[in-house]
Amino acid sequence: MIALIPVRDGVQPLGSDETITEAGGRTLLVTGRFAPGAWATALAPRLSGERVVLPASPDGRDLAPRLAYTLDVPLLAGAIEVWETGARISRGDSMVDVEVDGPFVATLIPGSRTAEAVSGDVETIELDVQGDHIEGNDAEVLEVLPPDPRTADLAEAPRILAAGAGLTRGDEPNGKDVVALLERVADALSASVGATRVVTDAGFAGYQRQIGTTGVVVDPELYIAFGISGAAQHIGGLGTPKHVVSVNIDASCPMTAMADLGIVTDATALLLELAEQLEASHD
Description:
Elements: E1 2-6, H1 16-22, E2 27-31, H2 36-47, E3 51-55, H3 58-71, E4 75-83, E5 86-91, E6 94-99, E7 104-108, E8 122-126, E9 159-163, H4 175-188, E10 192-195, H5 197-201, E11 222-226, H6 232-235, E12 243-248, H7 254-258, E13 261-264, H8 267-281
Parallel strand pairs: 1-2, 1-3, 2-8, 3-7, 4-7, 9-10, 9-11, 11-12, 12-13
Antiparallel strand pairs: 4-5, 5-6
């Protein structure tokens, strides 16, 4: 297999290290003005007969189907594991193993695998996409916008405020209203909202917001856990956050024990106070 990493403005996309590990270190880094149709045309001769793995980053998801079409090979999109003859693909709450006889193109979901130090050959090329092959292949890129924290993929979120059972157990305000309040506070802090399985199962947050071994694996710069005790299934979804803050009435719970800052208080009461202070600062 070979990892294909599209590099934009000198920065590798999220999931690059995992993709390189999955391919055993054999890697092709591609730079230049990103134009997925033109890139697919230019890369096809180099990748003919290969089993190609890309990170399921925005650029990887744009390039992969065009490359698969150009190479006339199957596309295995949304994989959590890739091997020489196929991949394990995430389909909602289930996993499907797909076997392929021959070359394919796959995208690996960031956070689904562990990045490890591997040895291998790395080749970097800069594609010339000014030639005739660009004609009619690509939409014009008008502007690249930063992600909206409210809708951004949690795996890519730099700041996360997460709701646990301790934040939603009160009658007044109820769990749904508390999570809605957390979303408003997160908006004010340019952060995304996450949740534990208890919260998503109760319907207070969507399952795409669930963090843990049965949800999304995250690796933010800042993680604030409101009323999260720190069960193993949830902790398993945390990568290596740079800063962790725990708000919980239990000073000895696993989440507080692992936090850089532990605030021992009622999570709902603190959230209400935080929301009030943020609203006052904007008046």
